[in-house]
UniProtKB/TrEMBL annotation:
This is Sugar epimerase. It comes from the Bacteria. It comes from Marixanthomonas ophiurae. Pfam families: FdtA. The lineage of its organism: Bacteria, Pseudomonadati, Bacteroidota, Flavobacteriia, Flavobacteriales. Gene3D superfamilies: Jelly Rolls. Transmembrane segments: none annotated. Residues 9-127 form the Sugar 3,4-ketoisomerase QdtA cupin domain.
Length: 143
């Protein structure tokens, strides 16, 4: 069975004290690592990073991101599916994008100073599971 990417929707509560955002349906039992990334410019595209074994979860902590996913058909040959799935993550709408093993991901910031938190289910260096593909050899990034 092939796992599919999915959005885990959060919510928010606003009152006179401010705003509380929450992601109550995000089960973090599998998470072993967390890191944050920012892009130097809004024109920079970070693509494509894939994993055969690892799962990832993306959370937009600040700003806005476009995230694209594509299923990898052959990791050694760098072959991808023709179907690109596009997600828009916005810090004003708390949600987590789950990226299962077998997918390549790429992302682009839509506004300056955007911050993306990335959760992984393996510790750094625990397994060798990083596959980097270029936007020229693997799949072009189309806006």
């Amino acid at each position: 069975m092939v796992l599919q990417p999915k959005i885990i929707q959060g919510g928010s509560h606003i009152d006179e004290r401010g705003t509380l955002q929450f992601l109550n349906d995000f089960d973090m039992k599998q998470v072993k690592r967390l890191y944050q990334t920012t892009n130097a410019t809004t024109s920079m595209v970070r693509a494509w990073m894939a994993h055969k074994i690892e799962s990832r979860w993306f959370f937009c902590a600040e700003g806005k991101f476009t995230v694209k996913l594509v299923r990898v058909l052959d990791f050694e040959k760098g072959l991808a599916s023709n179907e690109i799935i596009t997600y828009k993550l916005d810090s004003d709408n708390p949600q987590i994008l789950y990226i299962p093993p077998g997918y390549a991901s790429g992302f682009k910031t839509e506004v300056s100073n955007s911050k993306l938190l990335i959760f992984a289910d393996y510790a750094f260096g625990e397994i060798e599971d990083n596959f980097k593909f270029t936007t020229t050899d693997f799949l072009p990034w189309q806006s």
